[in-house]
Every structure is written in structure tokens, then in C-alpha cells.
Design goal:
This protein is of the alpha+beta class and about 475 residues long. The protein contains 5 helices and 21 strands.
């Protein structure tokens, strides 16, 4: 009779116990990993909620708040008003200032959420510092720079500061998984950064307001402690990498670029309508009278006695083949509007511009060069022709370079107003309009009611364009 093999049974039991221990250890590791993932998700949600509150604050105030004093439990920004500089640049989320609860400013591991904001001259914490409302998204001509506070300007009701000028060189530097956002980007750098210092909490502030004495050894985590970074987002280290390791990383960050903040807070730049038209002058009685210093332009039969008059956006000079001549004014009649011409004997003594004697008007436009010219003429009929010359004048030397010449034929039978628009194909800041003999070789005559200049690629029409013939 064989004895039972007790040794084999013992080994079997040992193997079962070993497998059970491995299973329990695996389940414990899985539980810990799952718990860590849940805590990171919870913290990421807290950061997103804080960002929404910051952007709501910016929407209402036009700026971002300064950080709170991390050693205090007030949750108030310091200073708690618009300020160029902040007292605690490495402070924490000002939860009370932005209308949140105290618990909203604590991450899942019990650390205060860090808050960094772009401040200083041109920064987000000054009055209207986060607002791009006065910036222009389309400013091809005559752009202006920022004001002394680094904000977009409004000059004489015009919004001529490009949005690209506003963001250039601004913002905190953030490296987001290898992609850097800073003042060289079209979006600008980060307007603000929210930071959870992760489960290790190295450098974080506790709920009681004391700073964790342990400092990170990782350069990326060290940068995230600074006031201006450069801040780093990257994947969390494996659980096997201890916080003391120089490669350790467990921070969680949330940031918003300058243009992203402006968009979310309804403070974004816009295409202001006054940018397409760079000058517009209607030569009605009021405008001509103002250019004459209040004198009635109908005096002396409409002869103003002035060879040159300055209007809102242009200086107008009368001339004929012999030199400068006095500008004339005529009240509108028979479907035509008030208009100007030349009071010269060479044209038979009338107030029209006449091809007899080479009469014309020269328009020197203020501001930057432009590319389109829209013109409305009185009594520009099928029997009239006009020549328009475009120049670019170097204002330093007053040297005028002819860049284009265009001839136009009238398009009405009985007079009244007629309009046309010319794209010169290049930029100009001076135009000359004169009658030339028509295709029969007969003299042409008309008057100028209105001129308007515009940038390229937009609809360019005088105010009178639709009220008469369109040539």
C-alpha cells in the first residue's frame, strides 16, 4: 500500500497562495491607478471650472484679476482692483474675487490651485487689459500702434490698431506637449495659467496657507512654480518614478491664450467698418463754406477766389494749362448735386471744368496711400470724356510719380449725376481729374460732386453712386 505524496500537495497549495497574492497585488495596483486617474480627472475639471469663472470675470470687467495671497484664506485678488502689477505674482486662485467657493480653489490632493497671469505694461490685469474690442482685424492702410498702456487706440473715432499689434510680444510662455505658445504666435502667449502641483504637491500651498517645504528637482516642475514660467504641460510620470527624481512630473495645467481669452470673454477684435474707406469728400455748400472759413461759396458767381482748399480728407487745387486757377462752386440743379470746378477764362468764364485750356482739379489725399477712387460728376454725358491720373507722392521730397492713367466716357444723355469707380492697380495718394476732348474731337465739360478713396478688394462707391447714372 502506497503512502500519500504530501510534498506534492503542499507545493500545490503554495502555488495557489502565491497566485492569490499576485492577484491581490494586481488588484491593489489597479485600484490605486484607477484612483489616481480619477483624482487627476477631478482636478482637471476643477481647473476648467476656475477658467470659466476667470473668463466670466474678464467679460464683465474687461480684465483679469491678480492672484490671491497664498498664505491667506480670503480668496481675494491683491490688489483687488485694476492694476498694472500684482502683489503676489506666484499666488493662488482668487476664488472670492471671481465669485467661486473656497473649495473650488483646492485640487483633489488638498493643495491650493496656483494662478499665474500676464501683467505689467500691456498686461491683462490693468483696466481693459484683456479687451481687444478696439483692435481691428482688417487694417491694410494707415495702421497705428498701441497707446501708452499697450492697448489698441481709438483716434478721432477710428479703430486703426491691428489685432496682430496687440498680441505681438505678449503673454506667458507655455510649452504644451512640445508646442510653444508665446508672444511670437498669432494668438499671443498665455493670458493666464492655472496649476495643480499634483499628488506630490512639491512647492504647493496647503489649505492652511503654508508652502510645502519639498521642492521639485524636475526643471519642468520648477518652471511651473515661477511667476512667468516658461510653463510646461507633459505626460505624468509612471508611478515607479519617485517625486525626488529629476524626470518626475505630476503637475496639471490649464491655460488660455490672449486671443482665446478675448474670444471666450466676448472681448475679441473686430473688422471696424471705417477701415475700408480711407477718405470721403462731398463738395456740397456746407463743406465748401467750411473750407472757406465760413464764407458763402455762392458769392462772386461761385468764384471762391482760392486756388487751393483743404477738406476733411483731401486738399483740392484748381489748375489749367497755364498754372493754378481759382476753384469754383455751383449749386446742384437738374438732377445734379452741388459741385466744384474751376473759375477760369480759359473755359469760357463758366464754373465747369472744361477741356478747353486743360482745366482740372488735383486731389491730394491725407493719410496713407490707397488703391481705389470713386467719383461722382455733374453733367457728365455721353458727349464728355474724363482723364484720371494717379500719382504716388513722396511727402518728404514732394516728388510725384505717375502710376496710372485711366480715361472714362460719360453715360447720361441729359446731365445730372454720373459716377464711376477706378481701381488703379497700385497705391496712390494724389489724383487729377480733367475733361479731355470726346471721341468726336469736341470739348468736354463737367463738375466734381464727390470723391472717395478705398483700399483694394472692397466695394468702393461715393454716397451719390446709386442716385445717378453709373458709368
Amino acid at each position: 500500500m502506497k503512502r500519500p505524496q504530501r510534498g506534492a500537495g503542499g507545493i500545490f497549495v503554495f502555488i495557489l497562495l502565491l497566485l492569490a497574492m499576485v492577484f491581490i497585488a494586481a488588484m491593489f495596483t489597479l485600484s490605486n491607478t484607477s484612483s489616481s486617474v480619477d483624482l487627476r480627472k477631478q482636478t482637471a475639471t476643477s481647473l476648467a471650472n476656475a477658467a470659466a469663472a476667470l473668463e466670466q470675470f474678464a467679460s464683465q470687467s474687461g480684465r483679469l484679476p491678480c492672484p490671491a495671497d497664498p498664505t491667506l484664506d480670503t480668496g481675494l485678488a491683491v490688489p483687488n482692483n485694476a492694476s498694472v502689477n500684482c502683489t503676489n505674482p506666484t499666488g493662488t486662485l482668487p476664488w472670492a474675487t471671481i465669485g467661486m467657493r473656497r473649495d473650488d480653489a483646492i485640487d483633489a490632493w488638498g493643495w491650493k490651485i496656483g494662478y499665474r497671469v500676464y501683467s505689467g505694461n500691456g498686461g491683462m490685469t490693468q483696466a481693459n487689459g484683456a479687451s481687444m474690442v478696439n483692435c481691428d482685424t482688417v487694417q491694410a492702410l494707415n495702421p497705428v500702434g498701441l497707446d501708452g498702456n499697450g492697448l489698441c487706440q481709438v483716434v478721432a473715432g477710428r479703430h486703426d490698431t491691428p489685432d496682430t499689434t496687440f498680441v505681438a510680444g505678449k503673454g506667458l510662455s507655455v510649452n504644451d506637449f512640445g508646442t510653444t505658445y508665446d508672444g511670437t504666435n498669432a494668438t499671443g502667449g498665455a493670458a493666464y495659467v492655472l496649476i495643480s502641483f499634483g499628488p506630490s504637491g512639491f512647492g504647493a500651498y496647503t489649505e492652511s496657507g503654508t508652502q510645502n517645504p519639498n521642492s521639485p528637482t524636475s526643471n519642468d516642475e520648477k518652471n511651473n512654480l515661477k511667476a512667468t514660467g516658461p510653463f510646461v504641460l507633459e505626460a505624468a510620470s509612471a508611478p515607479t518614478v519617485p517625486p525626488s527624481d529629476s524626470t518626475h512630473y505630476d503637475d496639471i495645467l490649464f491655460y488660455r491664450t490672449i486671443t482665446g481669452l478675448a474670444r471666450n470673454a466676448n472681448l475679441a477684435a473686430r473688422d471696424w467698418p471705417d477701415d475700408n474707406v480711407t477718405s470721403s469728400n462731398a463738395f456740397n455748400q456746407g463743406a465748401v463754406s467750411a473750407a472757406l472759413g465760413g464764407t458763402d461759396p455762392r458769392n462772386n458767381g461761385g468764384n471762391t477766389g482760392q486756388t487751393s482748399l483743404s477738406f476733411a480728407f483731401a486738399t483740392v487745387t484748381g489748375f489749367d494749362s497755364s498754372g493754378n486757377q481759382a476753384i469754383s462752386f455751383t449749386n446742384g440743379s437738374s438732377g445734379a448735386s452741388d459741385a466744384i470746378g474751376v473759375a477760369s477764362p480759359s473755359g469760357g468764364g463758366g464754373n465747369d471744368l472744361s477741356s478747353t485750356g486743360g482745366e482740372g482739379l488735383r486731389f491730394d489725399f491725407a493719410g496713407a496711400v490707397q488703391q481705389q477712387l470713386s467719383v461722382s460728376l455733374a453733367n457728365f454725358t455721353f458727349f464728355d470724356s474724363a482723364e484720371v491720373k494717379f500719382y504716388e507722392v513722396d511727402r518728404a521730397t514732394n516728388v510725384a510719380t505717375l502710376v496710372d492713367t485711366v480715361d472714362k466716357i460719360g453715360c447720361t444723355f441729359s446731365g445730372g449725376s454720373a459716377s464711376f469707380t477706378i481701381d488703379a492697380g497700385t497705391t496712390f495718394n494724389r489724383a487729377e481729374i480733367r475733361p479731355i476732348p470726346n471721341f468726336f474731337g469736341s470739348a468736354s465739360a463737367f463738375r466734381v460732386e464727390e470723391v472717395r478713396t478705398c483700399i483694394a478688394g472692397v466695394t468702393c462707391q461715393t454716397n451719390l453712386f446709386s442716385s445717378g447714372a453709373q458709368c
